[in-house]
Automatic annotation (TrEMBL):
It is found in: Cell inner membrane. It is a multi-pass membrane protein. Keywords: Cell inner membrane, Cell membrane, Glycosyltransferase, Membrane, Transferase, Transmembrane, Transmembrane helix. Residues 182-377 form the Glycosyltransferase 2-like domain. It holds the Pfam family Glyco_trans_2_3. The gene is opgH. Belongs to the glycosyltransferase 2 family. OpgH subfamily. This is Glucans biosynthesis glucosyltransferase H. Pathway: Glycan metabolism; osmoregulated periplasmic glucan (OPG) biosynthesis. The chain crosses the membrane at residues 27-56, 353-375, 405-429, 436-456, 526-545. Gene3D superfamilies: Spore Coat Polysaccharide Biosynthesis Protein SpsA, Chain A. It comes from the Bacteria.
Length: 624
C-alpha cells in the first residue's frame, strides 16, 4: 500500500512537471517530493491499520478478537526476582523522589513487592544536587519504613557513556540477581498493575527480551503542554496499534517504560564506540533503537504492547523546551544512518533507523522543496513564455497545466496528513469518549488541536531543518536534563529563538508577493507561522491559558477525568514537599556485587555470542 501510493503520487508529480518541459530544478523537486510522499504514505497506512484494528477490537499481535495479549497474563504467578530501575542525571530532586515513591507504593498495593527491588541510579554531577538527592533519599527511607528494604540508591562519581553506561554498570554489578528489569525515566510513572503485567507477559513469552509500553503524557499545565498531552492521548494508542501490527516481533525501544530481560541485555547490548567523527562517529546517542536491533539480531523477540494501560511520562511544557529535546534526538537518530547496513540486522530494525532519521530530515526536505518551488515560480514569472520554439514553426507551443492532477495530488496529501487525526478522533469517540470528557469535548478539542498543529508546524519545520543542518556539519549537542515543570517563556527568550525565522518569512513573503502573488497566498500559512513565532511561543507557554482551557473543558485528557492512584500519590507528595533537613539514617547498602562482562557488539560482523537457536532453547528450558 505504501509503495503503490508513493509511486502513484510521484508519477502524477512527474506528469505535472513534464507537460511544459521538465527542468533540472524540477527533477530535484521531484526527487525530494518522492521522499516526503513515501514518508507520509507510510505513516498514513500505518494509522489506517491501527484504526481498523482498534475499531473492531482486534489484537495487533494475535489478530484475534478474543482475549488480548495483555489479557493472557491475568492468572500467571510471578517467578524469580525483578528490578525497577530509574536512571537520573541532574534532575529536579523533589520530582524524582516523588515519582519513585509513587511507583514503589503502587507496587506495594498489589501485594507482590516481595518479587521486586527498586533502584535509583544517579549520574548526577552537580555537587549541590547530589547532596540534595542523598538528603531526600534518606527522608524517603524514613517515610516508607520497612519498604526501604526493597529500595537502593547508587550514585556514580563519573557518568561515563551517559545513560548507556549507567544501565550497563547496574547490569554488570547487580544484574545477576534479576530475571528482568523495568526501566523508568526520571519523569516516568508506572502503576503496579502495569509493571506486573509486563513481568507476566515476559514469563509467558520466553523468546521475548524486551517489551515496550506506550507512555501516555500526564501533568501538563501550560497551554502547549495540554495541547500536546491531549494529542498524544488521543492518537498514540491507534498509531501504536498500527506499528505493533507491522513490526510484530521486531518492535522498537524508546528508552524507558519497558521491561528488558537482563541476561539477554548483558550478552547482546554492549554498545561500541563508532569510528569516525560526528554525526556518525563517537558514542551511540540514541541507544534505545540500537539495543532493540541488537536483541532482535540475536534472535530475541522485541514486542510493543499497544493496549497496556498504566504507563505514563511527562513532556516539555513549551515549544522551546520541546525543540531543545528534539535537538538531542535529531543527532542521535541521524547517527543511525551510519549503522543502517550493520551486519545481520533485521529489515524492520533498518526501517526503524530510516524512519527515525526521516522524522526530522523530512523537515529539511520540505523546507528545501518550498525554497526551490519559490525559485522556480519566480523564474517563470520573470521569464517571457516562448510560444514558438523556432522561427520556422507554424503552430505555437501552448503551456499545458494538468489541473486535475494538481487537485488530486493536493487532496491526497491533505488526506494523508490530516486523515490519521480524524481516524484517531473517531476511534476515541466510539470507544473512549468518556475518558475525554464526552463526545462534544473530544471533537471540539480534536478540531482545535488540528488548527494549532497547523499553526506551529512551520516553526517546528524551521527548527528541525536547522538542527539537521547543524548535525550534518558536525556540530555536537550536550545531552542535559530537560525542563519538565511548566514555565512561561519570557518575551526576550521568545524573540531570541525566533527572530531569524521571522526575518526569513518577511523577506520570503515580500519577494513572492511582488513577483508571484498566487504563490504568496499558497505560502501564507507557512509565512504567517514563522512571522508570528515569538507570540506563538510566548502565549502557548502560558500557565494561565492552560488552566483556562481546562476550566472550559478543552484538551481534557483521561488522566484528568479519572486520576489513577499512582498519579494521585505523585500529585499529593509534590504538593506537600517541604524543605528537608539532613536526615541521618542508615539506608540499606547496595547488594553484594557479582561482576559480569558485557561483550562489546559490532556492526561489521556477527559476534560468536549470537547463536539464535541455543539462545531461544536456553530461554525456553529455563522457563519450563
Amino acid at each position: 500500500m505504501v509503495f503503490i501510493t508513493s509511486i502513484t503520487g510521484s508519477w502524477m508529480m512527474y506528469e505535472i512537471f513534464s507537460e511544459s518541459g521538465i527542468t533540472t530544478l524540477e527533477v530535484v523537486l521531484l526527487i525530494l517530493f518522492s521522499i516526503t510522499f513515501l514518508w507520509i504514505s507510510a505513516a498514513f497506512w500505518s494509522a489506517c491499520i491501527g484504526f481498523i484494528l482498534q475499531i473492531f477490537d482486534i489484537d495487533p499481535l494475535k489478530l484475534s478478537r478474543n482475549k488480548h495479549f495483555v489479557g493472557q497474563t491475568e492468572n500467571v504467578a510471578l517467578k524469580d526476582r525483578h528490578a525497577v530501575v530509574m536512571p537520573v542525571y541532574n534532575e529536579d530532586t523533589n520530582r524524582i523522589m516523588a515519582g519513585f515513591e509513587a511507583c514503589l507504593l503502587d507496587m506495594e498495593g498489589t501485594g507482590q513487592l516481595e518479587h521486586f527491588d527498586f533502584y535509583m541510579l544517579s549520574d548526577t554531577q552537580d555537587p549541590d544536587m547530589a547532596q540534595a538527592e542523598l538528603t531526600a533519599w534518606n527522608a524517603l527511607c524514613q517515610r516508607v519504613g520497612v519498604l526501604s528494604e526493597n529500595i537502593y540508591y547508587r550514585r556514580r562519581e563519573k557518568n561515563l557513556h551517559r545513560k548507556v553506561g549507567n544501565l550497563a554498570d547496574f547490569c554488570q554489578r547487580w544484574g545477576y540477581q534479576y530475571e528482568s528489569m523495568i526501566v523508568l525515566d526520571a519523569d516516568s510513572i508506572m502503576t503496579g498493575e502495569c509493571m506486573l503485567t509486563l513481568v507476566k507477559a515476559m514469563q509467558q513469552n520466553p523468546m521475548s527480551a524486551l517489551i515496550q509500553t506506550v507512555p501516555i503524557p500526564v501533568r501538563s499545565q501550560t497551554l502547549f503542554g495540554r495541547f500536546l498531552q491531549f494529542a498524544s492521548c488521543l492518537y498514540c494508542p491507534m498509531l501504536a496499534t498500527g506499528q505493533a501490527f507491522w513490526q510484530t516481533d521486531s518492535a522498537n525501544y524508546w528508552g524507558h517504560n519497558a521491561i528488558i530481560r537482563v541476561d539477554a541485555f548483558i550478552q547482546h547490548c554492549g554498545l561500541p564506540t563508532l569510528k569516525g567523527k560526528a554525526p556518525f562517529g563517537g558514542d551511540i546517542l540514541s541507544h534505545d533503537f540500537v539495543e532493540a536491533a541488537l536483541l532482535r539480531r540475536a534472535g530475541w523477540d522485541v514486542l510493543l504492547l499497544a493496549d497496556l494501560e498504566g504507563s505514563y511520562e511527562e513532556i516539555p511544557s513549551n515549544i522551546i523546551d520541546y525543540a531543545t529535546r528534539d535537538r538531542r534526538w535529531v543527532q542521535g537518530n541521524i547517527q543511525h544512518l551510519g549503522i543502517i547496513n550493520g551486519k545481520g540486522l533485521h529489515t524492520v530494525n533498518r526501517l526503524h533507523f530510516l524512519f527515525g532519521a526521516l522524522a526530522y530530515m523530512s523537515s529539511l526536505v520540505w523546507l528545501v522543496m518550498l525554497v526551490l518551488s519559490t525559485i522556480d515560480a519566480v523564474v517563470r514569472a520573470t521569464t517571457d513564455t516562448v510560444f514558438f520554439a523556432s522561427n520556422y514553426s507554424l503552430f505555437p507551443s501552448w503551456p499545458v497545466v494538468k489541473t486535475e492532477y494538481i487537485i488530486t495530488l493536493i487532496s491526497a496529501t491533505v488526506i494523508m496528513l490530516l486523515g490519521p487525526k480524524l481516524l484517531g478522533a473517531i476511534v476515541a469517540l466510539v470507544r473512549r469518549r468518556e475518558q475525554f470528557g464526552g463526545g462534544l469535548a473530544l471533537m471540539s478539542g480534536a478540531f482545535i488541536e488540528a488548527v494549532i498543529a497547523i499553526i506551529i508546524a512551520p516553526l517546528m519545520m524551521f527548527y528541525h531543518a536547522y538542527f539537521v543542518l547543524n548535525v550534518l556539519v558536525g556540530k555536537n549537542v550536550s545531552w542535559d536534563a530537560q525542563g519538565r515543570e511548566g514555565r512561561m517563556v519570557p518575551w526576550k527568550e521568545a524573540f531570541k529563538r525566533t527572530w531569524a525565522a521571522s526575518a526569513i518569512a518577511i523577506i520570503w513573503g515580500g519577494i513572492t508577493l511582488s513577483l508571484t502573488p498566487i504563490l504568496f497566498w499558497w505560502l501564507a500559512p507557512v509565512l504567517l507561522g514563522l512571522l508570528m513565532a515569538a507570540p506563538i511561543i510566548r502565549f502557548s507557554s502560558s500557565l494561565y491559558l492552560g488552566k483556562l482551557s481546562r476550566s472550559l473543558g478543552m484538551f481534557v485528557s483521561p488522566s484528568e477525568v479519572e486520576e489513577v492512584p499512582a498519579l494521585s500519590r505523585l500529585r499529593i507528595r509534590l504538593a506537600n514537599m517541604q524543605p528537608q533537613d539532613e536526615v541521618l539514617l542508615s539506608c540499606p547498602p547496595m547488594p553484594a556485587q557479582q561482576w559480569q562482562d558485557m561483550p562489546q557488539q559490532s556492526f561489521a560482523y556477527l559476534s560468536s555470542s549470537v547463536d539464535i537457536p541455543s539462545q531461544r532453547l536456553a530461554s525456553e528450558n529455563k522457563q519450563q
